[in-house]
Amino acid sequence: MILLPFYVDDIIKTALSEDINYIDSTADLLIPEDSLSDAYFVAKASGVVAGLEVALRVFTILDPEMKINCHFKDGDEVNNGDIIAEFSGHTRLMLKAERTALNILQHMSGIATYTRKCVELVKGTNASIADTRKTLPGLRALQKYAVTAGGGRNHRYNLTDAAMLKDNHIDAYGGITPAVKALRKKAGHMLQIEVETRNLDEVREALECGVDVIMLDNMDCAQMTEAVKIVDRRAKLEASGNITLENIAEVAKTGIDIISLGALTHSVTAFDISMKWRK
């Protein structure tokens, strides 16, 4: 996944506008305008780095003359005490950028770190780890990028990418079969259709409709194993709902193709990274 520069800059400028009205009442009044300093990002735990270029872009937007030396790249694993990047520039501007840059880097690295844990737990199985649309408004691309940095894959980016019949769509329209038929009449030939199923009878019905992906919603491992046998590779199978680090390996062993977790983005813990000054 690639983050487009104009998108990144828009997010950063919005964040900086939240943080600075027209003056930084501490740095602007305390630090001489011509003061120069050296600083660095240091990991305070072990995990996976993501969003480094985005975080450092906060500094170069404010100070185009900033000099930066990165020791790691997105997707790399770091340990407690590792210096991730070093930079030098105008002291005032570095102080203004600090919080926004760290907010981005800590959040994205937290997502990448959690994703990597999930990926490692399903190694040796057919399952891939995917995100969902349970993202923070305005930050979806950053969060989904962080998932890929951790070794995961992206589910649909938005509602346009694929037609996904969830339980409420099915209940509102009157069933899986009529809903799929109605979609096929209007959808273009490039549009994939996924159906969320709640039991094995719905799995069979979705399969008969010839859909591309069948989601197994909140099913236990016994049901998933049976669904794999029923489908027999005639559609992709996605497991979702109540999946944790404790049970993800067991879910993967059922033979499903995709495990999607909203937790990758909606409730991840920030990765502990600090900015320190060179004295």
Explain what you see.
The chain is an alpha/beta fold and 279 residues long. The two termini are 38 Å apart. The model has no long low-confidence stretch (mean pLDDT 96). Helix 8 links the parallel strand 8 and strand 9. Helix 4 crosses helix 5. The chain contains eleven helices and twelve strands.
Query: In percent, how much strand structure appears in the residues?
Result: 15-25%
Instruction: Tally the beta strands.
Output: 12
- Summed over residues and divided by their number, the pLDDT gives a mean of 96
Q: Could you describe the largest sheet, including whether it forms a barrel? A: 6 strands, parallel
Structural class: alpha/beta
- Give Rg in angstroms: 23 Å
Alpha-carbon distance between the two ends: 38 Å
Order of strands across the main sheet: 6-11-10-9-8-7
Question: Topology of this protein?
Answer:
Blueprint: H1 5-19, H2 27-30, E1 36-43, E2 47-48, H3 52-62, E3 67-70, E4 77-78, E5 83-90, H4 91-121, E6 128-130, H5 140-149, E7 163-165, H6 167-173, H7 176-186, E8 193-197, H8 200-208, E9 213-217, H9 221-231, E10 236-240, H10 248-252, E11 258-260, H11 263-266, E12 273-277
Parallel strand pairs: 6-11, 7-8, 8-9, 9-10, 10-11
Antiparallel strand pairs: 1-5, 1-12, 2-4, 3-5
Helix pairs in contact: 1-3, 3-4, 4-5, 8-9
